[in-house]
């Protein structure tokens, strides 16, 4: 969902569609908040049992590409973690492009303002 919203955010930015940008930023923030809540819940669940906590910590440090030797549930967790990490990398890359594009647009718009008006703004 975050990847989709990030793509839509990039497209709205290219169209200079501020209404869509605001809506998409809100939707994306909601999705990020859900992810954060899921992370907190997961940590609270494993906190109750020492063995579960140790297993969870081990899975967090294991390379998801090495999931083949694990039992089904642990392998599935590692695979999901790998997909999440891949998505986060994609989102960070796209965010960097969106930010660069926004700065470029801001600079362009600033250059279009007559000098006498710029003095009033600053």
| Low-confidence blocks of residues | none
Number of distinct helices = 5
Radius of gyration: 21 Å
Instruction: Name the beta content range.
Output: under 5%
Order of H and E elements = HHHHH
Number of domains: 1
**Global mean pLDDT:** 85
The level of helicity is over 70%
- Number of DSSP E strands: 0
Topology, please?
Layout (H helix, E strand, L loop, with lengths): L1 H14 L2 H30 L2 H12 L10 H41 L2 H7 L1
Give an overview in words.
This protein is mostly helical and 122 residues long. It has one domain. The chain has helices at 2-15, 18-47, 50-61, 72-112, 115-121. The longest helix has 41 residues, at 72-112. The two termini are 40 Å apart. The relative contact order is 0.10.
List keywords for this structure.
mainly alpha; 122 residues
Overview in brief:
The chain is an all-alpha fold. It is 85% helix and 0% strand.
């Amino acid at each position: 969902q975050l990847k989709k919203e990030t793509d839509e955010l990039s497209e709205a930015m290219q169209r200079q569609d501020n209404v869509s940008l605001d809506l998409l930023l809100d939707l994306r923030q909601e999705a990020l908040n859900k992810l954060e809540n899921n992370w907190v819940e997961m940590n609270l669940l494993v906190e109750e049992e020492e063995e579960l906590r140790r297993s969870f910590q081990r899975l967090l440090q294991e390379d998801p590409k090495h999931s083949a030797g694990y039992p089904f549930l642990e392998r599935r967790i590692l695979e999901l973690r790998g997909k999440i990490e891949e998505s986060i990398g994609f989102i960070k890359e796209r965010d960097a492009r969106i930010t660069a594009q926004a700065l470029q647009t801001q600079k362009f718009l600033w250059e279009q303002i007559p000098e006498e008006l710029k003095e009033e703004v600053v």
